[in-house]
Amino acid sequence: MKNPARLLLVSTLLATGINAAALTQYVSPEGNDDNPGTAEAPLQTLDRALERNATEILMRHGNYFLAPTSTVVPAGVVIRGGLEPYYVADEDETIWAADQRRTVLLKTEIQRTAGFILSPTEGGNMEGGVLEDVTILGGFTSVEMRDGSRMTNVILGGGTSSTVLAQIGNTQLPAILDGVQITGGGGSGVQIAATGSMIIRDTVIRSTGGRGISVTGTGNTLIENSVIQGSNSDGIAILGGNEVTILNNRILRNAESGILVRQTNPTIMGNLIERNDDGLRIINSSESLISQNTVVSNRTSGIFLNRSTPEISYNIIASNQLFGVMEEKELEEPMVGGPLVGNLFWSNEPANYLDEGDDEWDTADELNTNLLNTVPPEGNIVEDPLFT
User: Cβ of 215: how many Cβ atoms within 10 Å?
Assistant: First the structure.
């Protein structure tokens, strides 16, 4: 998916010629901070390279022990790890190329600060701070991200609080997680508490102490092609956000809801939502779109609705243990439900649908005629999807 804000950022870079005075510094565990920082004579520490105002820092694989205070990556600075120097005899020079071994950045003392702070972009003329191809272990919060910052192919071992904290305020300059792996940690894998934009793609978040991803700001968030598995709470919690899209993810085996939505209206499409407590728990949401998902084998409801009227269309809802769709009974006048169109139901217990009046609907005829919805339900079928 092309991102207009990202394309604008790149075109601005080209037009303005930012980083004309770029400085590359090389860092190796066997280096020396008195060296010039060249490919042949690298520095030893990341801090020394940052002190020299390097715009590109290339790090050999190996372990690096960092100060307990936060390491600030300025705007326009790229830190790239996982490299190995090679001497090229024909050219009489040393080049650093990608290696399968990792660059590991370790915080051995834990203070109530972030391990890394990726600075925001400056005036929209360059990316914020960037981390690529490194592993970060330890810290209170592993990484704080700002507008326009990016992490690509980064492995995070989990901080004692949230592993990634996104504090962003500009909807035109998204912070980006691309190909990141997050395992463990005492809080959320990613906590987005801001008014800006966040993109999470091709990322794996496993076994977090809190939620896998928590969105509590009012900005725009895209979560796509990612795996959120085994969190100690909800897989994804959307508790705010102007435009939130959850697209083509695998959301598996989380202790509470696979996706929790409260007082907001996200688009949820193309996801596999399996073996959570509730598959989806939707509260106070009038215009959510739940479409083309596979919601199977969750321990309670496939989709739980409380004071909510989302569109539920073209999903597979099968083998959930407390109704495929369950409307929570309210004491006041029952709400008219949202559109229920073209879904495949199968083998949900004790029935495929429970409405607010405690009526159970199980057959296709019942699902398409008995429900009180804003649009008459239609095209729902009860068939074996052949994989349950």
Answer: 29
CA 159, distance to chain mean position in Å, is 16
pTM for this model (two decimals): 0.90
Of 316, 238, 217, nearest to 271 by C-alpha is 316
Q: Is the pLDDT of residue 5 over 50?
A: no
Distance CA 356, CA 362 (A): 15
In this structure, are strands 267-269 and 289-291 parallel, antiparallel, or unpaired?
parallel
String of DSSP letters for 273-334:
EESSSSSEEEES-SS-EEES-EEE--SS-SEEEES---EEES-EEES-SS-SEEEPP-SSSP
Q: How many residues does the chain have?
A: 388
Residue 388 corresponds to which tokens in the numbers above?
């349950």
| Residue written as token pair 């035109």 | 172
The span from the CA of 281 to the CA of 248, in Å, is: 18
Chain segment 227-279, per-residue pLDDT in tens: 999 999 999 999 987 889 999 999 999 999 999 999 999 999 999 999 999 99
For range 214-239, the mean pLDDT: 94
Contact 296, 388 (CB under 8 A): yes
**Residue 36 pLDDT greater than 80, yes or no:** yes
Residue among 232, 217, 179, 230 nearest 201 (CA): 179
What letter would DSSP give residue 75? Answer: T
Enclosing H/E stretch for 237: strand 236-238
147 close to 129: Cβ distance less than 8 angstroms: no
Q: How far apart are the first and last CA of the chain?
A: 32
Task: Specify which residues 130 forms β-bridges with.
Answer: 78, 150
CA dihedral 87, 93, 96, 97 (to 10 degrees): -70
Give the Cα separation of 269 and 278 in Å (integer).
Answer: 17
**Both structure tokens of 11:** 């075109």
